[in-house]
Amino acid sequence: MIAIVDYKMGNLQSVKNAFKVLDQEIVVESDPDKLKNYDKIILPGVGAFGDAMDHLRERGTDEALKEYATSGKTMMGICLGMQLLFESSKEFGEHKGLGLVKGSVVPFNTEEFNTSLKVPHMGWNRMTTQKHKLFENLDENHYLYFVHSFHVKCQNNSNIIGECEYGYNFTSAIANDNILGIQPHPEKSHKNGLQILQNFINL
Fold it and tell me: Class for domain 2-202, per CATH?
């Protein structure tokens, strides 16, 4: 069984509908004590990093996610959900994250690299991927849909399994053993997004 973590900060219905297209049963779970009962979990997210962490802490979902990570079972963060996996964020101040992946969340560097960059980074972009089961059977050009103003910066390059170019290269997918994360929205990315979700099911 797969669960989507409900902490009042995610586009849950869109993700659930994508799994429905794949004929995969999925549960929207708001009780952190029950997360350990699932084979895989997805941490979605839309909004600000600090607000999301506050919601996770309110019911102890942050600690439940950390416990789940140590179980060896697979969890995947999507968009803001991926960013929450990191140690910290500089979005509207300094905020502490879940700390499951070493690194931080930073704004697009428009001053140093390209003053004409429009933020948020929104729309379709090609993702260059490393060999990983999450990316099996994708089209040669992995175009996926993005909406974000901040991106992750990994401390360890070995955690990077996907990158995109937007004025400069930034990390768009990560893996740390059983912890996975993708910046684009697979539920909005048509064929390639559904393939990534199917690959997640198959892990």
Answer: alpha beta
| 48/176 Cα distance (integer angstroms) | 23
Ranges of each domain in the chain: 2-202
Contact criterion met (CB below 8 Å) for 79 and 46: yes
Give dist(CA 29, CA 35) in Å, integer: 7
Residues 112-160 pLDDT 10s? 666 678 889 999 999 999 999 999 998 777 899 999 999 999 999 999 9
The answer to whether residues 196 and 138 touch, using CB atoms and an 8 Å cutoff, is yes
On whether the CB atoms of residues 87 and 56 are closer than 8 A, the answer is no
> Tokens 């996907």 belong to which residue?
162
What letter does residue 34 receive in the DSSP assignment?
A: G
Distance CA 195, CA 127 (A): 14
Q: Are 114 and 168 in contact (CB under 8 A)?
A: yes
Beta-carbon contacts of 118 under 8 Å, excluding residues fewer than 6 positions away, are: none
Can you give the pLDDT at residue 155?
A: 96
List all residues 6 or more positions away from 71 whose beta carbon is below 8 Å from its beta carbon.
Answer: 36
Which two tokens mark 174? 């990560």
| pLDDT single digits (tens) 153-192 | 999 999 999 999 998 999 999 999 999 999 999 999 999 9
pTM over 0.85: yes
- Is the distance from CB of 14 to CB of 79 less than 8 angstroms? no
Please identify every residue annotated as catalytic.
Answer: 79, 185, 187
